[in-house]
Amino acid sequence: MSSSLKSILLLSLFLAFAAIGGMVKIPAIIGTIALDSMPALLIASLYNGRKGALVAGGGHILSSLYAGFPLGPLHFLIAVEMALLVWLFGYVFSCGHRVLAAALFLVGNGVLAALPFVFILSSSFYITIVPSLLVGSFINLTMAHFLYPPLASKLPRGELE
To answer: Residue 2 pLDDT > 90, yes or no?
Structure first.
């Protein structure tokens, strides 16, 4: 099997995991905070940030779809933010700074990604959503952290980079 086909299959598998994680919601004022970024973080740490970014953006769109797109087209902005944050996580992780990568993702996704909504919606929305975003980010990071070691030893590495 060619490496491009293996790469497409791997991305499809992790996007399916993100879709399943998108159904597991974390209580918040909007229903789009879920476990959809865990597979993206996992593939970004196992392979690279580009693959993680694709899974993160697609996973958020699917999670939003399950919730009925409560923020409308703003979910595409959130998907881009998620993709950039997971790409950054994967890049920093691949440089060997694993704790820094996790901290950047936690602060980026839990605090900074919601900042545009202060101007778009209101500061009340921001203040209300940040605790749920932090909890969701922490849970996604923790699950990816514990799944990384067993998967890193089992999955092929070189040909799918």
So the answer is: no
Provide the 3-class DSSP secondary structure of residue 91.
Answer: helix
Number of Cβ within a 10 Å radius of residue 32: 25
Using the CB atoms, write b or e for 105-136: b if 16+ within 10 Å: bbebbbeebbeebeeeeeeebbeebbebbbeb
Number of CB atoms found within 10 A of residue 57's CB = 23
Structure tokens at 51: 């693959």
Q: What is the pTM of this model?
A: 0.92
**pLDDT at res. 28:** 81
The mean predicted confidence, pLDDT, of the chain is 91
DSSP code of 112? I
